[in-house]
From TrEMBL:
GO terms for biological process: type IV pilus assembly; type IV pilus-dependent motility. This is Pilus assembly protein, PilO. InterPro entries: PilO, Transl_elong_EF1B/ribsomal_bS6. The chain crosses the membrane at residues 9-29. Gene3D superfamilies: 3.30.70.60. Keywords: Membrane, Transmembrane, Transmembrane helix. Coiled coil: none annotated. It comes from Actinoplanes philippinensis. It comes from the Bacteria.
Length: 191
């Protein structure tokens, strides 16, 4: 073999070795670094997206927190409408409230009769308290009191039956109604 031929073999062999080292280095060292970098960038982008969502949620929660007094007032109203079950079921307080309303509307509220509790057929955590009640006075005043019971007073009531008896300028309304209590305790809220 000639020297020139040997030099060519060495030259091509060296070039092949260099190419093999470059390709091997690419696949064994450089490409995994690029893959790792791409993975980190994808994770970073995903984390930034999640961070933006969480910041938006935090802003929403801060906005909701500004309404906390409104929510507490709503909860207090709901708790008054549907009080938590206790030994008296809040009936004595309710009956006193009815007497006060009677004075306010210039009618006599009497003849209270509260029978035993009944579990609601539609909502098992709610107990119904049947109450019968007599209201005497002018018809207009009686109607104002009934309207107040249905729309303004805080306790949840359902008027099931009403019987009006008119005798001259005095009238008597016999009501059968249900008051409600709950067995679900909620956080107590100060007004």
């Amino acid at each position: 073999m000639t020297t020139r031929r040997i030099d060519q073999i060495w030259l091509f062999g060296g070039l092949a070795l260099i190419i093999l080292l470059v390709v091997g280095g690419w696949f064994m060292m450089i490409k995994p670094q690029y893959t790792s970098r791409d993975s980190v960038q994808a994770d970073t982008a995903e984390t930034e997206t999640q961070l933006l969502k969480e910041q938006k949620r935090l802003t929403e929660l801060k906005t909701e927190l500004k309404k906390i007094t409104e929510y507490k007032a709503d909860l207090l109203t709901a708790q008054q409408a549907l009080p938590y079950h206790n030994t008296t079921n809040k009936i004595p307080e309710f009956l006193k409230q009815l007497q006060t309303l009677g004075l306010q509307y210039q009618v006599e509220v009497s003849g209270y009769a509260a029978t035993g509790e009944e579990t609601s057929s539609t909502t098992p955590t709610v107990t119904e308290l049947p109450i019968t009640l007599n209201i005497e006075g002018p018809v207009d005043n009686i109607m104002k009191l009934v309207k107040h019971l249905q729309t303004e007073q805080p306790r949840a009531l359902l008027i099931e039956n009403a019987k009006l008896t008119v005798a001259g300028d005095k009238s008597e309304l016999s009501l059968t109604l249900k008051a409600f209590i709950t067995s679900t305790k909620t956080a107590s809220v100060k007004s």
